[in-house]
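Notes from the 1:1 (GR / supervisor)

We went over the backlog. Supervisor wanted to see one worked example end to end before approving the batch request, so GR pasted a single chain during the call. The sequence is below; no edits were made to it. Supervisor asked that the structure be written out right there so they could see what the output format looks like.
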Amino acid sequence: MRTVPVLKSPEAVDAWLSNAGWYPGRRCDDLAAAEAASVLKDFRDDGGNLDVIAPALEFLREHVGLVAPRHASTEDRVEFYPRLMYRGAAEDVQELADGLGKKVFPVAHDTYDGGTVLMDEAGRFFYLHHSGEYFLGNDKYSALMSYSRGYPLEHAEDYYA
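Structure output shown during the call:
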């Protein structure tokens, strides 16, 4: 997870996202709605239940469809699409939500590790990875700066209700 260029400021985050096609005021409402509906079906098919939550939908409306490289020389990238990255992930997502005492919704994933970035109802960001559940930050900027620094990340358990 350490291959994203280390983002040390909100301006660096904006630059990284801008290189992927983001710009202030970007709106992709139809794509966000279609992607949210698709992942809801995927969760049902995986035996889970998921609700779209307002903070995640707002984030997706602005960022859905972006693909940002994690490392320039590989296909390793962050894709801003809500996805179920492996069979049985619905159960792991539900465990995170239960622990937090809040609904969560996926907003991005990385292609190399198959980790998933999720938001909760309070607008906080978490990272679900095969090595565990992690807290990324209270907002987009702190989350992406934390993600870019890599391990060690704070354990999500520290944020359980």
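Supervisor's comment: Residues 10-159 form one domain.
Batch request approved.
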